[in-house]
Amino acid sequence: MLSSNADENKKIDIVEEYEEISHEFDKDLEDKENENIPAISLALKNGIRAFGNITSWLSIVLILSIIVQVSGRYIFHKNSIALEELQWHLYAIGVVIGLSYAMVNHSHVRVDILRVNFSEKLQRKIEIVGILFLMFPFIFIVVDYGWDLAAEAYRVGERSDAVEGLSHRWIIKAFIPLSFFLLGLAALARLIRYVSYLMKGAK
């Protein structure tokens, strides 16, 4: 029993140490006093953050729609297909727009097993390579595919398969290229910042 408790405490200590290192790194990234951050990088970051903050208000609409639907189903014994689909759409918008918002706020998931032991310059060089050769190509593919998907949905007037479902399916599909375009801007903001840091260094 004592051995089991000791193992659990050890696991907790490892997790806490990992989170402390990760959060310390994120804190350093946000420290504007020690770094000459280009104005365009800050502008992109602030714009995406503002867009994300505005989008977050859709969560209230989502919660209210859930309350209305649950109340209608269990109190009035009526169910709304359109309201249920609206909830799916609102949730999807929050997820896809949250990609760029998470990136500019450094709240996305990282695999820090090796990176935390690297120097700051090496960390940023790795991120630059990742953005240029992994993120940008992937974002381009998704934006290109998503644009065609939304355009085709608009052309044919795609709607829900359910009779009482939502029409104008192209609106929700348009959030695919839009969200990844924003993610590309977030990646561009970070790329500009890291290249500037490597060229000019800290103050």
Write structural notes for this entry.
There is one protein chain. The chain is mainly alpha-helical and 203 residues long. The protein has one domain (38-200). The chain has six helices and no strands. The protein has helices spanning 2-29, 39-56, 58-74, 81-104, 120-156, 170-200. Helix 3 (58-74) runs antiparallel to helix 4 and helix 4 (81-104) runs parallel beside helix 6 (170-200). The radius of gyration is 22 Å and the shape is elongated. Mean pLDDT is 86; it is low at 24-28.
Characteristic terms for this protein:
single chain; 203 residues; 6 helices; 76% helix
Distance between the termini: 54 Å
Major β-sheet annotation: none
Overall 3D shape: elongated
The total beta strand count reads 0
Helix count from the secondary structure assignment: 6
H/E element order = HHHHHH
**Average pLDDT across residues?**
86
Strand content: under 5%
**Helix/strand structural class:** mainly alpha
**Uncertain residue ranges:** 24-28
How many distinct folded domains?
A: 1
Return Rg in Å: 22 Å
Helix content: over 70%
